[in-house]
Amino acid sequence: MDENTRKKKEYGKQKYSKKYAKKLKKKLQVSMLSIAMVLLLIAGSKLAGLSIPIDNIKDIAKKGLVANENQMQEENVKSSNVTIAEDGAIVCDSIVQGVRDCELENGTYTFRVTGNINGTNETKDYKVELINYYDDVTYTANTNLGDSTKEYKMLAVKYHKNLTINSGVTVTARNVSSLTYKKGMYICVMGELNNNGTISMTARGTYNQAGENVYLWKNRDNSYEYVPAVGGAGGARVGAGNGIAGATGTNRATGGGGSGAAHGNNCTVYSGAGAAGTSYSGGSGGGAVSRLKSNGNGGAGAANGGKGGNGSAYQTGEWNKTAGGGAGNTGGTGSRSGGNGGSAGNGGNGTGGLLVIYADQLSNKGSIVSTGSNGGSATSNSQNYYSWGAAGGSSGGGSINIFTNKINLRGATNTNGGIVVTSNHNGGAGGAGSATVTKTMPDLNYPTKEIKLNVNEIYNIDKSKISYIDIKNEHTDFVSMGEIEY
């Protein structure tokens, strides 16, 4: 029995453990001890005539608020926020909170979430492949996570302690024969995430899978943070000239695929349109077209993270026509016709995918990325109108969603679509996806940053000026921590 298996069995075979209750007691004890230290610190400073930064008091008080929040979360888990349905599904508030709050062994589970958009409820079942690591983990080499099956399911990897990714190391989801069947990757870190390398879902958009609303997080006001089923629109086909860029994804959406370029001599041609993004994939790019005296079209990017469109070229004689393929899962095939010289490239493999991260603390010194791929290039053997290159459209960027209690270092994120591929006529760029960082715990705020106390001097804190900043809004409220009330 390996060490990780032994530690997993120590957690017990029950689906939900009571370890959070034990942790809660410890955090509450630490919170009460911290409050007592604040009182001692203030009293001792009064005698010594020292100044006390309010931020120090605020940080200790914040720990008390976090403990109270954890207590509410634990009570929710023990009551009705996480339950098991008769068919074995894990019923929870959201995917992020469900994986975080449940204690499940390695395996494949169905997480059932009832979300709400604009007052309309819908219940979604998400199949999830869950992998646990119970000790601190450090990645020192490039790592592909998840199994190698073609079963469609979200990949969730739960690190029960801390996760470190070294510089120069990329961690991503596993694909099979250049296609991704994982419906997004969720990295759940119960401790601190120290990323010095790259966490990536670049070119890992889910292949040939329809989108759906993916309910990631339930807010305190019962609204939801979710990735919409449909992402940015694909670029429209063109009858002549450069391809059109895919639309940018907003509000957690992925980007659309770009359309291919188009060129025709004495004929009617249209390039392939780019496809719209889905919740699990940026849109695929359209194929280009370049033809002489023969009508024809480039292939459209396939829907639902499918194949990039094929290029279409036709020419007779010494001149040549070239048309690049669109990027997608997999890239479309380039097309070349006519005399010697010139080239037509296949579209790049892959679209931007869905990436979800939860960490108690986030220290991102590296990069977190989910970008699209480039369309196929096209070159000709001459610069006259009878030899002409038209480039393919690029695929759309993905969706990055980060949830954390504390941000030590935000770092860089990138959800760009594939670039404009240049030729005599350029292919359309993939639309950028979206990257959203959500701080899940409120911050305490007080306008006075420092107070100076002389011996025997008393400072009264104005409770009306204390506020906490929530992820949705800023408001002043009555905050109780232990025996201290503001």
Short description:
With 486 residues, the protein is an alpha/beta fold. The chain has four helices and 35 strands.
Which key features would you list for this structure?
single chain; 486 residues; alpha/beta; 11-stranded mixed β-sheet; 5-stranded parallel β-sheet; 14% helix; 33% strand; elongated
Share in β-strands? 25-35%
Low-confidence stretches: 9-80, 471-486
Gap from first CA to last CA: 53 Å
Radius of gyration: 27 Å
Which term fits the overall shape? elongated
Helix percentage range: 10-25%
Compute the number of strand runs: 35
Helices, by number, come to 4
Summarize the biggest pleated sheet.
Answer: 11 strands, mixed
Q: What structural category do the secondary elements indicate? A: alpha/beta
Describe the structure.
With 486 residues, the protein is α/β, with parallel strands linked by helices. The protein is 14% helix and 33% strand. It is built from four helices and 35 strands. The protein has helices at residues 3-10, 19-48, 54-78, 95-101; strands spanning 51-53, 83-84, 90-92, 107-117, 120-133, 137-139, 143-145, 153-159, 163-165, 170-173, 182-195, 198-200, 214-218, 224-227, 262-265, 269-270, 289-292, 296-297, 312-314, 320-323, 335-338, 343-344, 354-364, 367-369, 378-379, 388-390, 399-409, 412-414, 434-439, 443-445, 450-452, 467-469, 474-475, 480-481, 484-485. The strands form ten sheets. Strands 2, 3, 4, 5, 6, 8, 9, 11, 23, 27 and 29 form an eleven-stranded mixed beta sheet that branches. A five-stranded parallel beta sheet has the order 7-10-12-24-28, with no helix packed on it. A three-stranded parallel beta sheet has the order 15-17-19, with no helix packed on it. The longest helix is centred in the N-terminal third of the chain and has 30 residues, at 19-48. The radius of gyration is 27 Å and the shape is elongated. The chain starts with a helix and ends with a strand. The model is unreliable at 9-80 and 471-486 (pLDDT under 50).
